[in-house]
Structure formats: structure tokens, C-alpha cells
Design a protein that fits this description.
alpha+beta, two-stranded antiparallel ribbon, about 45% helix
Amino acid sequence: MPGYDRRCMETVEARVDAIREQALAALKEEFPDLGYVVDPHPLADYFAGQVDKPGAVYAQFVLPGGKTEAELVAEIAENTRRYLAEHRR
């Protein structure tokens, strides 16, 4: 995302990837060949910008909607199940 410190964004992206991996792992028993999840939250929902000095904006990881990580993993897994039910025939 433009204007954000790249290292900070990489940290946020890694945390989001870890959450999505947890959701995928939770779905693997039910869908062993599944290689993706359907997260209703775009990457932008997972960060908040903090201006530290003029021209420098640092991204900080946040959980969307005030959810806990476990609630978010469950939401992503359920969203993926709904998507698969609608699109897999």
C-alpha cells in the first residue's frame, strides 16, 4: 500500500497470512484438497496507520471488527464453507 513503511506492511501481511493459514488448517479435514480460504476482510481491514513523523506512516496490525483471532479464524472458515457450497457442484 503506498505511503506505508514496507517492513511494517510485511509484518501485517505475515500476521494475516498466519490467520488465513489457521482457517485453512481447520478446513483441511473436511476439504483435504482445499488450497485457499475466502476471507471477507481485505488486507486494509487488518491494519491501522500511525504517523510517526512527517511523511512516514507505519502500519500496525489490528483484528477487524473487534473480533478475537479465534473468532476471525472461525468466520473465515465459515465464509469459505458458504462459498464452496455455492460454487462447487
